[in-house]
Design brief:
The chain is of the alpha/beta class. Helices cover about 45% and strands about 10% of the residues. It has one domain: SGNH hydrolase (Rossmann fold), CATH 3.40.50. Strands 2-1-3-4-5 form a 5-stranded parallel sheet, with helices on both faces. It starts with a helix and ends with a helix.
């Protein structure tokens, strides 16, 4: 985003609210909260003139699609959010859950996200599932990097198809996540989750789509 681009922003009267839905990749397992991608996204947007409140996060390490939906219901949130992100599915893959069940539950979560955005699909942003097989943990798991990659690709094919079909923004961070196989700076201290460096890259990939959604037409 150039300095010229920032002049197109339709500055809201109040700061934008942001709801981030997901699992460990959303809460930023093994890194400081300020380093997780929702907080870095908010920071990057603030830097270009889109004022965003502290993100509200509904996510937990290990959650699958149905557990995220249960977690959302348990929060009993009311009202709407200006920005909603959704990143979910790695634990469905890790546990060997049905890919068709994932499709059904992911579609339901898309509708939930749209509802939180007040029905405005332009304010919902889906992020693809990263490939944990490229991490030191993945390499030592005995499941095979190629097998994990193939399964992650299958789950991402579904979430991308359903996201595009619903007319929602989709950001593919998966190829970059595979750089962790050779660049250990992209991996957190637990050897499995992304580092703040990788999350910064995710936020940078996502920010332009959010920027456009809140710029003057």
């Amino acid at each position: 985003m150039s300095k010229t681009d920032t002049t197109k922003i339709a500055t809201p009267a109040v700061e934008l609210s942001y709801l981030a839905l997901g699992d460990s990749y959303t809460i930023g397992e093994a890194v400081a909260q300020s380093s997780c991608f929702p907080f870095q996204l908010a920071s990057q947007l603030n830097n270009v003139g889109i004022k965003v409140n502290t993100p509200k996060i509904i996510a937990k390490t290990g959650w699958t699609t149905n557990e995220l939906q249960d977690g959302i219901q348990a929060e009993a949130l009311t009202g709407k959010f200006d920005i909603v992100t959704l990143l979910i599915g790695v634990n469905n893959q890790y546990r060997g859950n049905s890919i068709e069940t994932y499709r059904t539950e992911f579609k339901e979560l898309l509708q939930t996200a749209i509802g939180f955005a007040g029905g405005n699909k332009a304010h919902v942003f889906v992020v693809s599932i990263p490939d944990w097989g490229a991490t030191p943990f993945g390499k030592q798991s005995g499941r095979g990097m190629q097998v994990i990659a193939k399964e992650i690709d299958a789950f991402n094919a579904i979430n991308k198809e359903e996201t595009i079909k619903a007319g929602i923004s989709y950001t593919d961070i998966t190829p970059g996540s595979r750089n962790a196989a050779t660049d250990h700076s992209l991996v957190a201290s637990d050897g499995l989750h992304p580092s703040g460096v990788m999350y910064k890259d995710w936020a940078a990939m996502l920010a332009p789509s959010v920027f456009r959604a809140f710029s003057k037409k």
